[in-house]
From TrEMBL:
UniProt xrefs under InterPro entries: AB_hydrolase_fold, AXE1_dom, CE7
Superkingdom classification of source: Bacteria
Domain Acetyl xylan esterase: 1-324
Organism from which the protein derives: Cellulomonas alba
Protein name: Acetylxylan esterase
Lineage: Bacteria, Bacillati, Actinomycetota, Actinomycetes, Micrococcales
Length: 329
């Protein structure tokens, strides 16, 4: 993929005008308060995953409307009685939590790792998911981007972003976790969910958002013809005249808007040849990040020659070092 977006110097200064709905904070305050009526820990049981150096637990927690969400919890073996820092991780589009041995690096680095399954996904890559989405929707195309897209209250990502906030709540309630040392992480869709969780949760110690999806929707839809953003294009190609209604719904779930409310330090990454999450949409989120949360420190890792894979293992290494430094480890 050739360079197609703004030059890097312009990206670094790119702060688009915002189209936040006036009731954004009320919308999310009532949504999260309703979810928190339910006890967050539903079930936690050990799993024999054949791993001697890592302990594994199968977690079910109460997400949106108390609905059950699955997650893997991995930690260094024998540390359940300690108070370790934790990383809550969210997955990319279409993936599921898979098998425990697929994601061991945070546990190997000395953290409790909570890997949230994504409701209704988990059948495109990895070893699959285990969490259904019990909520139906109106007309939609394949994928989840247009499920309930004509009404913010019914939109798919209202449920999934609430799940992300509740995953943070669940991590803080786990035995062996220091609730004051919880960070969030994710790439692509997971990066967008990390921004949402950061904007809707208090007291996080760090946010690691790689090539985040779910940001600056209008520009993303205008720039790329790849899924998942192109799902919105295909929907509007049939439902003519619904564009303003659709983008109004999406404004409640934009990582640019939600990330503005975050107060935790953040490490982002961007790939300048990314044809799935355009660089300008990532920089829109980065440049507005924390502007309503006290302007916390933030860093951007730039991968000039990469597409959506961005830094991959190199970025994981950078995350370990960044979070260790923030926690004095």
């Amino acid at each position: 993929m050739a360079l197609y977006d703004l030059p890097l110097a312009e990206l670094r200064a790119y702060r688009p005008e915002l189209d936040e709905p006036a009731d954004l904070d009320d919308f999310w305050a009532s949504t999260i308060a309703d979810a928190r009526r339910h006890d967050v820990l539903v079930d936690l049981r050990p799993v024999d995953a054949g791993l001697r150096l890592v302990d594994v637990e199968d977690l079910t927690f109460a997400g949106f409307d108390g609905q059950p969400i699955r997650a893997w919890v991995t930690r260094p073996a024998g540390t359940r009685g300690e108070a370790l820092p934790a990383v809550v991780e969210f997955l990319g589009y279409g993936g599921g939590r898979g098998l425990p041995h697929e994601n061991l690096h945070w546990a190997a680095a000395g953290y409790v790792h909570v890997l949230m399954d994504t409701r209704g996904q988990g059948s495109i890559w990895s070893a699959g998911g285990a969490t259904p989405d019990p909520v139906g929707s109106g007309p939609a195309i394949p994928g989840v981007m247009t499920r309930g897209i004509l009404d913010p209250a019914e939109y798919y990502y209202r449920r999934t972003m609430t799940d992300a906030v509740r995953a943070v709540d669940a991590a803080r309630a786990l035995p062996g976790v220091d609730p004051a040392r919880v960070a969030v992480a994710g790439g692509s869709q997971g990066g967008g969910l990390a921004l949402a969780a950061a904007g809707l949760s208090d007291g996080l110690v760090g946010v690691m958002s790689d090539v985040p999806f779910l940001c600056h929707f209008r520009r993303a839809v205008a720039l790329v013809d790849t899924d998942p953003y192109h799902e919105i294009v295909r929907f509007l190609a049939v439902h003519r005249g619904r564009a303003e209604q659709v983008f109004h719904t999406l404004s409640y779930f934009d990582g640019v808007h939600l990330g503005r409310r975050a107060s935790a330090p953040a490490l982002f990454s961007v790939a300048l040849r990314d044809d799935i999450c355009p660089p300008s949409t990532v920089y829109a989120a980065y440049n507005h990040y924390g502007s309503l949360g006290g302007d916390p420190e933030r860093e951007m890792a730039v991968y000039e020659f990469n597409m959506h894979e961005a830094g991959s293992a190199y970025q994981t290494d950078r995350q370990h070092r960044w979070l260790n430094a923030r926690l004095g480890l």
